TrEMBL record:
CDD domains, per database record: MATH
InterPro entries: MATH/TRAF_dom (IPR002083), TRAF-like (IPR008974)
Protein name: MATH domain-containing protein
UniProt-listed SUPFAM superfamilies: TRAF domain-like
Cleavable signal peptide: none
Residue intervals of the MATH domain: 51-190, 212-343
Source taxon at top rank: Eukaryota
SMART domains: MATH
Length: 352
């Protein structure tokens, strides 16, 4: 058991926990409550077995109202490898705005704590039961929030519970056994669902100005290239370093038939290119017509680049060699070829 002694402080913390085997009773009463304009399905039943995870005893309970304390927090306890605490709220009631009497209530909340060690973007999905000890019958009123609904705890919502665990008149009625000799006890059981969800965040990086998303490469002395492939100089798009790789006579199955063109991610000093970051790119190639605007464009390509030392991605059959080498085509002028890559979408892909 855990004891909370009266104090001049507005908040009192308790520190111990108790774990016992759960053996719930089959006897249940299903209720539906309305409070503060919201409807909450609450399941209640009595059982003999104590809470499996935590019991929070409060002595001299009447001093809460006398000292003006409205909230009492337990110490931290552990359940399902997570840290939690109970928050008991006491509302003595009074007159409502419409003049009717408000008898007051006991509220109880479960809060996840010490979340600093949890990973970025953490979420905990849990079911929980609350308990109020009946000291006359030596059993526990068991209260299940939302009929066993799974609650989602996260950094913006660390606390869930019941605005009205019990009406104050029910709680303080001696015949109910919840408050005896100015002493009461609350409890909690928490059951965390395993979370195997993979989370991925895309951070869009392409600039709205199209000119900043295009890289142009002039390949001079095209006919004199003796190697199977040639690389462009490195270039940056949105802080990411890339190269273009050109196969003048084609690559693989397109060899001798088509110009082949590829895009490759290269090693970068920029932090955006860290080993743990993937890059999603949607792009297309363009072989520029130097005599008119009838450029030759490829269809859009979509690839994930995750390794600067990894493969390049592009098109084996970027442009037929017969079209490229045509003297009237306008694509090869003064032995110079002009190619472009245009990024339609570029985003960082990271887990969270």
């Amino acid at each position: 058991m855990f004891c909370c002694l009266p104090s001049k402080e507005k908040r009192i913390q308790i520190t111990n926990t108790e774990v016992v085997e759960e053996k719930p009773s089959a006897e249940k009463v299903y209720l539906r409550k309305e409070y503060m304009g919201s409807t909450t399905a609450v399941e209640k039943w009595k059982r003999d077995t104590p809470p499996s995870h935590f019991i929070f005893m409060i002595r001299s309970f009447s001093q809460l109202s006398q000292s003006g304390i409205q909230k009492l927090e337990s110490g931290v306890f552990q359940a399902c490898d997570k840290k939690w605490k109970l928050c008991v709220h006491y509302d003595k009631g009074g007159k409502k705005a419409d003049g009717e009497d408000d008898d007051g209530r006991i509220s109880l909340y479960l809060q996840i704590v010490e979340t600093e060690s949890l990973p970025r973007g953490w979420e905990v999905h849990a079911k929980f039961n609350f308990f109020v000890y009946d000291q006359i019958n030596d059993n526990y009123l068991t209260i299940q929030d939302g009929g066993g609904k799974v609650r989602r705890f996260h950094y913006m919502k660390t606390k869930w519970g019941l605005d009205e665990l019990l009406p104050l008149s029910t709680f303080t009625n001696p015949s109910n056994g919840y408050l005896v000799d100015d002493t009461c006890a609350f409890g909690a059981e928490v059951f965390v669902l395993p979370n195997s969800t993979k989370r991925e965040c895309h951070s869009i990086m392409v600039n709205k100005d199209p000119e900043n998303n295009i890289h142009t490469w002039k390949v001079s002395g095209f006919s004199s290239i003796k190697t199977e492939s040639v690389n462009s100089n490195e270039f940056f798009i949105q802080g990411i370093k890339w190269i273009l790789r050109l196969y003048p006579k084609g690559h693989s199955t397109a060899k001798g038939q088509s110009l082949s063109l590829y895009l490759a991610l290269t090693a970068a000093e920029d932090a955006n290119n860290s080993p743990n970051t993937k890059l999603y790119a949607k792009y297309k190639f363009r072989i520029c017509n130097q005599l008119n605007t009838q450029h030759h464009e490829t269809s859009c390509l979509e690839r994930v680049f995750d390794d600067p030392k990894g493969p390049s991605y592009g098109m084996q059959k970027c442009m037929p060699l017969k079209m490229l080498e045509s003297t009237s085509g306008g694509f090869l002028v003064n032995d110079t070829l002009v190619v472009e890559v245009e990024f339609l979408l570029l985003s960082k892909v990271s887990d969270f």
